[in-house]
Amino acid sequence: MALLEVKHMTHYFGGLRAVHDYNLAIEAGQIRGLIGPNGAGKSTIFNLITGVYTPTEGEITLNGVNLIGREQHEIASMGIGRTFQNLRLWRHMTVLEHINMANYSHITYGLIGAFFGTPARYKQEAEIEEKSHRLLKLVGADKFADQKVTNLPYGILRRIEMARALAVEPKILFLDEPTAGMNPEELKEMMSIIRHVHAELGLAIFLIEHRMKFVMELCERIQTLVFGEVIAEGTPEEIQNNPLVIEAYLGKDLDT
Amino acid sequence: MVSFFQNLVNALQWGSFYALIALGYSMVYGILMLFNFAHGDIFMVGAYIGFFVATGLLALTVSGSIALPGWLVLLLTIIIAMALNSIVGMLVERIGYRPLRDAPRASAAITGLMIGIILETGNLALLGAQRLSFPPLIATETYNIAGVNVTNKKIMIVGVALFLMLVLHLFITKTKWGMAMRAMAYDFAIIPLMGVPINLIAALTFGLGSALAAAAGILYGVAYPILDPYMGILIGWKAFVAAILGGRGSILGAAFAGFLLGFIEIFTATIFPSTFRDLIAYSIILIILTFRPHGLFGEAYSARLRL
Question: Hey, which of A199, B124, B220, B251 has its CA 20 to 30 A from A117?
Answer without folding.
Answer: B251
